[in-house]
Amino acid sequence: MAEFLTDVKTLRERARQEIGKGPITEAYGADLDRVIQVCNEALATELVCVLRYKRHYYTATGLHAEGVAAEFRQHAAEEQEHADLLATRIVQLGGEPDFNPDTLTARSHAEYDESLDLIEMIKEDLVAERVAVQSYTEIVQWLGDGDPTTRRVFENLLSQEEEHADDLRGLLERLPRDLS
């Protein structure tokens, strides 16, 4: 049977002494303030993606728009779930999720897009997904073992962002190049 690195009595004493820190204990190995900042940047990214996908959903037109718009709607819902997960994690870490619309696009890794051409919409969404994949991969690597819970949150987001990128690439491959 493996032994604890710290005896149980000491663990209990520390837990009582710093009860106000919630889940953050001496074992937490990351830069807490920076992790919260990175999570807020990712939250802004997800919110911009929700808005971009919603716009594309409502403005998609043309012969092939129905199926593509359905994909946009689904991605918007999943990006909202990502935002909710990040906001929850920020609060767990003792931070405040930043939903300020005045600074949202400046904090986001992804860009908002107002394309009206269906192919351009898909391309811009694919670019944003690729940015998220790259950003989240770097965040997962940066977190390492310092904050395994936040790392798992980003690993799960990364998996779905990769799926989104694959979905969009598939749409581009299936659609005729000239939709006019």
Automatic annotation (TrEMBL):
Extract the InterPro entries matched here: Dps-like, Ferritin-like, Ferritin-like_diiron, Ferritin-like_SF, Ferritin_DPS_dom
Indicate the segments forming the Ferritin-like diiron domain, all copies. Answer: 29-179
Which Gene3D superfamilies is this protein grouped with?
1.20.1260.10
UniProt keywords (A-Z) are:
Iron, Iron storage
Q: Which PROSITE patterns match?
A: FERRITIN_LIKE (PS50905)
Q: Which domain of life is it from?
A: Bacteria
Q: Which SUPFAM superfamilies match?
A: Ferritin-like
Q: Which Pfam families match?
A: Ferritin (PF00210)
Cofactors: heme b
* Name of the protein in its database record: Ferritin-like domain-containing protein
Say which species the protein is native to. Answer: Actinocorallia longicatena
